[in-house]
Amino acid sequence: MNIRLKKEAIENEILSEFAVKSINSLGRAKYEEECNIRTCFQRDRDRIIHSKAFRRLMHKTQVFISPEGDHFRTRMTHTLEVAQIARTIASALFLNKDLTEAIALGHDLGHTPFGHLGEDVLNEILEEGFEHNKQSVRIVEKIEKNGLGLNLTKEVLDGILNHRGKGKPSTLEGKIVQISDKIAYINHDIDDAIRAGILKYSDLPKEYLDILGKSPKEIINFLIKDIIKNSYNKDNIIMTKEIKACMYKLRKFLFDNVYTTEVLSEERKNYKFMLNELYEYYFKHFEKVPEEFTNICKLGESKERAICDYIAGMTDRYAIKTYNNIKKDF
Questions:
Q1: 8 A C-beta contact, residue 23 and residue 8
Q2: Does the reported pTM lie above 0.85?
């Protein structure tokens, strides 16, 4: 009995004409026999969940580094919130939920320790630059499974690569993840900033809340419904122009009042110093970089790239522990 074939037949019956059907996937870089239970996108989702890079997300910073409290978001909880929002939208629009979820679960695998600070540090070090979305693709193609990669479908890779603001996903499922990422972090970063004492809810611009909602829960619900209403049975993911502008203004408010606040600037200086020191140490002691990362040098990639791959994969606590262990050798 081939359950996958039944699932593919159901997709053809119930999914929108604009959805990516599993049977029509562009496939993988390396050919594999199909599973007789799971569709290709379900297999991709499972491979991402079982990857080492995914497990490390639980100890990587979202916004607040080493917060005192159990309820601040991590890169893992952010990823799960994006996946939940994206699946809700995909389901309502009769798009492919499995493809959407696989993209969402993999979109931040390439994030560094200490959030965007780590990304900025590695971007300064590498001549070709460092972007977490491109690093996510490197992880699933070249780093996971000791260099063999996860051999994901082209649709999932496209969604992961293009989830950032200027990206242009080729599927509606990828576009859903792109907007769900913003919906998730705007709302949970407000929640975490209030919990950290950086903001009070009364600090948020009233003109935005009057349109979007009075709480993170209301805002998420309002934005999801707006996308579904405007995108239903259309070949695009659309948000009302006024509402989208309002959401981006709220995002700018967070950049001005949370992400770059002086409360976080001092610890950022410390962790930036730490990451630069780690890089300098491993540049001088390249033999101490694990083989799973140095293997790329055999493929013609640089020593600098291998070190940055290693540092990018570290969790916050592992980077701190490693720095404390090696700083006596500086």
A1: yes
A2: yes
